[in-house]
Amino acid sequence: MLDRVLGLFSSDLAIDLGTANTLVYTKGRGIVTSEPSVVAVQTDSRGVDRVRAVGKEAKSMLGRTPGTIRAVRPLKDGVIADFEIAEALLRYFITRAHNRSSLIRPRIVIAVPSGITEVEKRAVRESALSASAREVYLIDEPMAAAIGAGLPITEPSGNMIIDIGGGTTEVAIISLAGIVYANSVRVGGDKMDEAILNYVKRKFNLLVGERTAERVKIEIGSAYPADEPRSMAIKGRDLVAGVPKTIEINTEDVREALLEPVNAIVEAAKIALERTPPELAADIADKGIVLTGGGGLLANLDVLLREETGLPIMLAEDPFTAVVMGCGRCLDELDLLRDVTLKG
Description:
Structural class: alpha+beta
Number of strands: 18
Number of domains: 3
Oligomer: single chain
CATH topology of the largest domain: Nucleotidyltransferase, domain 5
């Protein structure tokens, strides 16, 4: 009875639990939270861990913490790597969405990578239930992204989506509210940051942090030769002299650094097209491919994909929020939720 009463007062939530960022959508209010998926944990003198900060505050501590505090990302490659910290992260976002009330037990829709195993599914479900969810529904990330991007997924025609997140890139062909083909490659924004970090280390003998690499990718990163090369100054530690140093890096350097992760994404798209049934392939040739996810914002990635596949490439209206908006729409349309929820 109490459970039913608490349920009446709850605002159902949709969560895009990403490797890099977590977005939360509340029914009736829209997106209420968009923060990094980072938790700062402090170990006390008895060796007990305590959550010190979550989200933006914890991310600002990355690479800057003393020995007793560590900034942890509980998700790796789109799945939970640290169960307890993932639970703390979810609990923080759920209570925050409900104005810090811990009494409320919402229904939650969570997007998960399409290549997720049964064990990983259970980890996500149990983390959410432990963090005070009443019911948990899981949806494939590419399906949620397609719904959020406004694709007609319930019609008998082929829709192709490439969702590039922080930990994974999801490529899927969708028809009649089902996934005809899906491939999840563990390449995303994080691998791009890592590639820039390693390139700067190799070419300039300079050690930079993750946040600097991410800034370089966002400000001057490009997947295709740019018309106007740009450059920016970055600071780090000189690996030879061991002292702080500033260097200049340009668009061409960053494009070279990103070759490997970008090619992996292009390759995944080509394999998906090769394995698409002919009738659906004809639909995709007419409609093209839709790009979603924060990684889809990399400059000229659409140009490169167009060049490589010969198909029209469209960037979703708001690539960054497509997944959480798709989950949110499922909260409003229960029939749709029933069609696309993962079983098991």
